[in-house]
Amino acid sequence: LIIVLLFYSSAVLIDALATAGTVQAHNVARRRFTETQPGLLKRYLQALAWTTNINEAIIKDLQQWYSKCHSAGESQQICLQVGYTLASMLRRYCHSSTSQKNACIKGKYQILNKFLGKLMECDDIQCHKNSLNILLNFPVETSLNYAARFICSNENGTNSVQRIALKLLAELPTEKISGKVLKKVMQVFRNSCPLPQTTTDQTLATEVLLNAVPQHSTVGPFLLRMESTCPKNNERWAFFYDNLAVRRRIDELVPVYI
User: Which interval of the chain is the signal sequence (predicted)?
Assistant: First the structure.
């Protein structure tokens, strides 16, 4: 089958190789598209992210590929897509069984550890943004401290990173978010950080805080107090009440069995 497919360079070829999810198909795709049709390599990686055959050997290859991607002279687009695909496959692999999930959560899965370590080796703003965007595909608890670094920072240029970090915090289990981190999120919400906060960042902070209400007893009173002391910014409060209404409807739809 692979020999026949080598004569074609189309969406059918790409999807067939990605769907196969075998090491042989992956090696053929990576070699062929890298050498002769690099424009199709990104499309293959996008398709591979959704393969139903989660192969650990392919995950390992992607991790090694990502770790050497930039130094090997690959384009930033390809390196990013390798990261997105690896994060998507790791998410499903880590949830494939209880034992595997525990290994990932407890930091015992070395492929995941190496990937996360490489993601956080950044020296510039754009690198941090890319890493946080990749982590949105697989929001793991170990990324919490990394994301928290950019919340309410006093470093110029970090506001754009903060926006992605807030999105990541909104995806993480709120019981794992410390009171110290939530305090920084509250500062974003009330625009009391060293740098001015946009309405977009404040609404993202609202999402994180509303998620935290059930586990953190101080968050609810803080939000109620803020409404009376800082009623300005109608857009922020409109989002707050719209979000509450949606959550209330969802709660009402959850069946209760007695």
Answer: 1-25
Q: Are 81 and 158 members of one domain?
A: no
Q: What is the residue type of 151?
A: I
Burial 137-162 (b: 16+ CB within 10 A, else e): bbbbebbbebbbbbbbbeeeebbebb
99-112 per-position pLDDT tens digit: 999 999 888 999 99
In tens, the pLDDT along 144-193 reads 999 999 999 988 778 889 999 999 999 998 888 999 999 999 999 988 99
Print the domain residue range for 83. Answer: 1-119
- Residue 256 predicted with pLDDT over 50: no
| pTM confidence score | 0.81
**Phi, psi angles (nearest 5°) of residue 197:** -105, 140
Count of domains forming the chain: 2
Co-location of 113 and 26 in the same domain: yes
Q: Do 88 and 140 touch, CB atoms closer than 8 A?
A: no
Helix H, strand E, coil C: the string for 169-190 is HHHCCHHHCCHHHHHHHHHHHC
